[in-house]
């Protein structure tokens, strides 16, 4: 690759100063004149039939301006779109219901909305709403839910025949033959727990009607394109709903589904007043969707030399009360099921079920993390049985360039698994020989590798648009409907445009996230923004660059290919002293009537909708590969474990912004280190871990020293060969840690969360 | 309604307002337009609402507004204007890439400032302990510790 001025540098992000100084405003920080405050009445029970909802007392309370229930929603049940512009149909698209009617499907489901003069009055009004529930037994275990005669969770047509959400299969070769011929077979059941995103900013927003009656809102979201669903729910045209967005205080997939948007649209339309809604932490922990708990039954076969010959898995997912993104997450789990290995015989079958638990949907990793835990624990056990080292067995079997996946697809992007596995393990080994014991605790080391896609499912025909305008003073305005959730999603676009146009980064200003004014970039999900919008920024900048270079060549009286843009100049490549100022080139373009604005689009590869019963071919654009090596200390007396050291090694393709890229890898590692122990404590549909005093996410004191190694193969499909890292960053840390615990005390924990009690019980079992 | 009259000097400016006795300082500050004090949990668990009250760092959600009557309150935004140490920390957070979504940042900078103000040294474990009441879900804390460590080193020079 060529020399870069800005790409690859640890540049301060353009949004960092506002955040450091306390100037950044978020969804909860917007105030409008005459604003009302809104509250949601939540279901008391996880499973019930709503007999009636009497709002008369609430409506009579002074200060109450609106009380709304399902009957007040123009279109209460709608097929949820997540920004995709293609109808993918059948089974994939989740039903979204604004307010409960018929059966209540989970504890906390929204039944009614109130808008009042103050938050206190709105809360009081919620208490005055008389709900007649007929409590139902419910079903809380996905396997129970799938049994004949099980309680049916949904009362809505199309969902009320059984609790099956979707079935899915991927396979190749002949697993039965491979198992019959295998030297070693490892068979285990794994269970992983629901995981909350626990972003520090709870869901919030404010909405109002503008002077033309347009429903206008500032709601931080990962999916600006939800304005289309809001319009459908409101039975309005899409050009009359506008979300100006807001900087998002953390997303991780939890702000991918609609949160407060439809509630605000309904209430502001009804009251004709601005309305604000802010969820409490308890509401956030109880109401919004979680990472899917999965039961995974794995069977792996290998030769005595350690070559894996078969991978078979049965996956059962708990979808909770609503479908949302379950089918998509399930596809990811199914497709990721075989693992990042070259295996000739594969059979992965998955099924998801409705239960009366909190709905599950997107969470960083999107189905790839669950199966990664299972297959990486399988690998370690195979290594033990074969007398191989954890590194050796992975090197022997991992995917290499040119290998095909279980669907028959051969990834186009570079596969560096071998290199990153060696580097991660090597860096941990380089810290010195492993001590047996430290301060009375047993020390263990473990590793795991993984892969996860970046970019959306290719059958969704994803696209992104970015607009760039040259200003007459030589500065540049970038317009992009990119939801910035803190990963530097907008800043990196500025960096790319600045690099291409030879400008310092501060000369490029971004205006982002406004459905009426910014070109739609698509969602900040699926680790797609750098890949999709980054490429859109690149193609857009290059169109303007071409105009600038042509004009500069004319001004400098040289050929176009002899000119480059650098340091706010256009100069002759072999004679940089011969130059013309960038601003003068822009002025010349303007004088000649050549457009100073361009909106460019980038399309991902497009494929057909696959057959869910036998998925074949390309499903994702490309993959990012991960390796983690971990050292733990386990106290055999108490079952407490501490992570002492983490080595992270990824092929990031190219780190566009070194700080942002490392930040994703480090943040992702600690995010899923938390998954090991975080405990929502679901009990028959009730969330017991409903505060940060009970749902304990990692603090700085729990965080070990982290060494981050970035390999830059340049072999990604993003700009300058970058790969996406946002979600893949939390892959493989969880099984690496579990494997390290095994190394320390000889106990393989197959169920999350790992509490000291559970670990101690297992330790005692093997000590007997 | 029973309300109490509260006078607080916030970032050097005196504010007088009525508030309900049960109103917490977080809501009081935000009702006065002080929006760099964030509400992450309102139960004292997350630290996003950390401010300096009479020289000590407190979580403003578990401090009553009435308790702050007659006091001086500083937030990250105000300190960034007048306090050299806070300015240094803000710069270090920007340069080390310690900020992702930014929601924890104002509280986190206060936690770092209080640590350094109380004589904290460039010691990663001590820094981690000092900021352990402030949650961050984005960064994995490494770059936050890097930034505070950097300023601690600068102070020793």
The portion of residues assigned to helices of chain B is 25-40%
End-to-end gap of chain B: 56 Å
Could you tell me the CATH topology label of the largest domain in chain B: DNA polymerase, domain 1
CATH superfamily of the largest domain in chain B: [2Fe-2S]-binding domain
How far apart are the termini of chain A?
60 Å
Unreliable stretches of chain A, pLDDT < 50, 5 or more residues?
none
Which class of the largest domain in chain A in CATH terms? Answer: Alpha Beta
Total DSSP E strands of chain A? 31
Global structural class of chain A: alpha+beta
- The total domain count of chain B is 2
Verbal overview:
The complex is a heterodimer of chains A (768) and B (157). Chain A is an alpha+beta fold and 768 residues long. Chain A folds into three domains: 16-24 and 463-603, Aldehyde Oxidoreductase, domain 4 (2-Layer Sandwich), CATH 3.30.365; 31-136 and 201-249 and 255-287, Aldehyde Oxidoreductase, domain 3 (Alpha-Beta Complex); 294-457 and 609-767, Aldehyde oxidase/xanthine dehydrogenase, molybdopterin binding domain (Aldehyde Oxidoreductase, domain 4), CATH 3.30.365.10. In chain A, the strands form eight sheets. Chain A has a seven-stranded mixed beta sheet, sandwiched between helices. In chain A, α6 (227-234) packs across α7 (261-271). Chain A is globular. In chain B, α3 (84-95) crosses α4 and α4 packs parallel to α6. Chain B folds into two domains: 4-75, Roll (Ubiquitin-like (UB roll)); 83-156, DNA polymerase, domain 1. Chain B is built from six helices and five strands. Chain B has helices spanning 25-31, 76-82, 84-95, 105-117, 124-130, 142-156, and strands at 4-10, 13-19, 50-53, 56-59, 72-74. Chain B is elongated and about 50 Å long. Helices cover 39% and strands 16% of the residues of chain B. Chain B is of the alpha+beta class. The mean pLDDT of chain B is 97. In chain B, β1 (4-10) and β2 (13-19) form a beta hairpin. Classes of the chains: A alpha+beta (768), B alpha+beta (157). Chains A and B meet through α1, α16 and β31 of A and α2, α3, α4, α5 and α6 of B.
């Amino acid at each position: 690759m060529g020399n870069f001025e800005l790409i690859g540098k640890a540049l301060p992000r353009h949004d960092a100063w506002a955040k450091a100084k306390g100037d950044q405003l978020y969804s909860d920080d917007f105030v409008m004149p005459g604003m009302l405050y809104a509250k949601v009445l939540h279901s008391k029970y996880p499973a019930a039939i709503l007999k009636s909802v009497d709002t008369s007392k609430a409506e009579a309370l002074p200060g109450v301006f609106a009380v709304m229930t399902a009957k007040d929603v123009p279109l209460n049940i709608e097929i949820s779109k997540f920004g995709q512009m293609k109808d993918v149909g059948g089974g994939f698209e989740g039903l979204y219901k604004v307010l409960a009617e018929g059966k209540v499907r989970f504890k906390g489901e929204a039944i009614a909305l109130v808008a009042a003069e103050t938050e206190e009055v709105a809360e009081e009004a919620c208490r005055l709403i008389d709900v007649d529930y007929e409590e139902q037994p419910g079903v809380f275990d996905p396997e129970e839910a799938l049994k004949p005669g099980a309680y049916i969770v949904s009362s809505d047509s199309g969902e009320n025949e059984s609790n099956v959400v979707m079935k899915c299969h991927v396979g190749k070769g002949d697993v039965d033959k491979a198992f019959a011929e295998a030297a070693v077979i490892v068979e285990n059941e794994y269970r992983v727990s629901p995981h909350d995103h626990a972003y520090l900013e709870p869901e919030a927003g404010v909405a109002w009607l503008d002077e033309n009656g347009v429903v206008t809102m500032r709601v931080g979201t990962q999916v600006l394109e939800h304005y289309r669903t809001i319009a459908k729910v409101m039975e309005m045209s899409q050009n009359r709903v506008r979300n100006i967005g807001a900087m998002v205080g953390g997303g991780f997939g939890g702000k991918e589904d609609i949160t407060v948007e439809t509630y605000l649209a309904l209430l502001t339309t009804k009251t004709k007043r601005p309305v604000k809604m802010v969820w409490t932490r308890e509401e956030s922990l109880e109401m919004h969707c979680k990472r899917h708990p999965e039961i995974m039954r794995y069977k792996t076969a290998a030769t005595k030399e350690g070559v894996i010959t078969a991978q078979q898995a049965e996956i059962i997912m708990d979808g909770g009360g609503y479908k949302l993104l379950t089918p998509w997450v399930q596809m990811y789990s199914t497709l990721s099921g075989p693992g990042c290995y070259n295996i000739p015989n594969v059979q992965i079958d998955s099924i998801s079920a409705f239960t009366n638990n909190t709905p599950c949907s997107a969470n960083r990793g999107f189905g790839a993390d669950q199966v990664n835990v299972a297959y990486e624990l399988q690998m370690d056990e195979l290594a033990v049985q074969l007398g191989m080292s954890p590194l050796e067995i992975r090197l022997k079997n991992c995917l290499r360039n040119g290998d095909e996946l279980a669907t028959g697809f051969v990834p186009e992007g570079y596969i560096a698994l071998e290199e990153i596995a060696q580097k991660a393990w090597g860096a941990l080994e380089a810290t010195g020989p492993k001590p047996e014991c430290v301060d009375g605790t047993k020390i263990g080391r473990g590793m795991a590798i993984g892969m996860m896609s970046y970019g959306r499912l290719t059958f969704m025909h994803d696209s992104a648009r970015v607009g760039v305008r040259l200003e007459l003073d030589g500065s540049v305005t970038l317009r992009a409907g990119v939801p910035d959730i803190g990963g530097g999603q907008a800043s990196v676009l500025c960096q790319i445009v600045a690099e291409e146009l030879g400008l310092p980064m501060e000369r490029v200003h971004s205006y982002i996230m406004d459905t009426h004014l910014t070109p739609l970039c698509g969602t900040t999900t699926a680790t797609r923004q750098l890949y999709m919008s980054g490429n859109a920024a690149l193609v857009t900048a290059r169109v303007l660059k071409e105009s600038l270079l042509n004009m500069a060549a004319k001004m400098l009286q040289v050929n176009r290919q002899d000119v480059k843009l650098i340091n706010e100049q256009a100069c002759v490549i072999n004679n940089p002293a011969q130059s013309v100022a960038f601003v003068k080139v822009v002025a010349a373009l303007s004088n000649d009537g050549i457009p100073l604005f361009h909106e460019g689009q980038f399309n991902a590869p497009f494929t057909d909708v696959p057959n869910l019963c036998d998925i074949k071919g390309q499903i994702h654009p490309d993959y990012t590969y991960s390796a983690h090596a971990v050292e733990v200390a386990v106290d055999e007396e108490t079952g407490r474990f501490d992570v002492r050291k983490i080595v992270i090694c990824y092929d990031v393709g190219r780190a566009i912004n070194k700080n942002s890229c490392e930040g994703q890898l480090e943040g992702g590692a600690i995010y899923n280190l938390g998954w090991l122990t975080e405990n929502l404590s679901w009990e028959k549909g009730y969330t017991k871990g409903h505060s940060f005093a009970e749902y304990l996410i990692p603090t700085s004191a729990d965080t070990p020293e982290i060494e981050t190694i970035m390999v830059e193969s340049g072999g990604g499909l993003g700009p300058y060969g970058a790969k996406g890292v946002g979600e893949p960053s939390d892959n493989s840390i969880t099984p690496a840690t579990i494997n390290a615990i095994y190394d320390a005390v000889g106990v393989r924990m197959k169920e999350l969360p790992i509490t000291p009690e559970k670990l101690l019980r297992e330790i005692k079992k093997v000590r007997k | 309604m029973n309300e109490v009259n509260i006078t607080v000097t916030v970032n050097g400016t005196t504010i007088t307002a009525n508030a309900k006795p049960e109103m917490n300082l977080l809501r009081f500050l935000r009702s006065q337009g002080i929006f760099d004090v964030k509400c992450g949990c309102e139960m004292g668990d997350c630290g996003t609402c950390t401010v300096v009250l009479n020289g000590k760092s407190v979580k403003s959600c578990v401090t009553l507004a009435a308790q702050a009557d007659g006091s001086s309150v500083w937030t990250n935004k105000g300190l960034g204007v007048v306090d050299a140490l806070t300015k240094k920390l803000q710069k270090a957070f920007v340069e080390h890439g310690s900020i992702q979504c930014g929601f924890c940042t104002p509280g986190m900078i206060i936690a770092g400032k209080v640590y350094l103000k109380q004589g904290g040294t460039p010691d990663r474990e001590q820094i981690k302990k000092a900021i352990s009441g402030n949650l961050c879900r984005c960064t994995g804390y490494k770059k936050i510790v890097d930034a505070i460590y950097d300023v601690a080193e600068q102070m020793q020079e």
